[in-house]
Every structure is written in C-alpha cells, then in structure tokens.
Amino acid sequence: MSAEKLILCLEKLQKLHESLFALAAEKTEAVKKQDIGQLQKIVRDEQAHIRAIGALEQERETLAKALTGGNGTLSDCIAAATGEARTRLETLRGSLIGITRKLKEQNELNQMLLYQSLQFTQFMLDLIYPKNEPATYGPPSGQKATSAMPRFDSKA
C-alpha cells in the first residue's frame, strides 16, 4: 500500500480544518455584531464540516493501519514511509497540528465572547425585571414568626 492515498486524505483533512477555521473567524464577527441569523448559518456549516472531518478521519485511520499494519498513528506512518512520501507526511503533520491549534484558540475566543454576551444579557434582564422582595421587615415568606423568649407562667 502506498502512502499516496494517505497523503491525499491528509490534504483533504487539512483543507477542511482550514475551512472550519475560517468559519470560526466568521463566527467571531457574527457574535460581535450580534447577527443571530448569520450565527445560525455558520453553526450549520460547522456541523457539516465536522461530519466530513469525522468521515475523513475514519478513512485516514483505515489507510494508516493498512500502511503500517499496526495501530495506525501518523508517527508510525512517517516511520514506515520513505523518501518524498516521508517528507510530505511530516509536513502535513506539522500543518495539521498548526491549524488545529489555531482552531482551538479561535474557538476558545468565541466561547469567551459568547459567555460575556450571555452575562451582559442576564445583567440587562436583571435591570429590567428585578426580583421582587418585600420592602418590610419580617421573617422570610412562608415562615411563621416565633418568639425567641420562652413563655413563663407566673401563676404557678
């Protein structure tokens, strides 16, 4: 089995990850602009990318196992490959690591932006609809007032 099929599969994975990174960057802008419609479209596109990446990852694993006869890690494939294929696999591994790192950072930024947006929304709702608490002094609602002083019968 040649490493060429594995290289093609990894190149497709790299392109999908780069496209997913572009979507994550678009998501950042949509969150900043508070464009819900665009955000929904981006999420649908991301889900399609994730399904395609999952399918390619299964194909990559199958090709890697066939190439190495072992567990199918990319490091094993690089060790089993020779010449130009080995160089290309090393390059693809480096670029995949780089793009996944950038994607992770972008997704963390998006998560922080969404969390801050939700906090702001909750703050505004609390200002508009404050919790109604009684303005009088007394025990909390649902509890009976009990005297802390014991009763003493003076006629005894």
Task: State the helicity in percent bands.
Answer: over 70%
Distance between the termini: 105 Å
Give the count of helical stretches.
Answer: 4
Number of strands: 0
* Protein structure class: mainly alpha
Mean pLDDT comes to 87
- The parts where pLDDT drops under 50 for at least 5 residues are none
> What overall form do the CA principal axes indicate?
elongated
Strand content: under 5%
List SSEs in N-to-C order.
HHHH
- The radius of gyration over CA amounts to 30 Å
Major pleated sheet: none
What does this structure look like?
This protein is mostly helical. Helices cover 74% and strands 0% of the residues. The chain is elongated.
Write the layout of secondary structure elements.
Elements: H1 4-33, H2 36-68, H3 74-80, H4 83-128
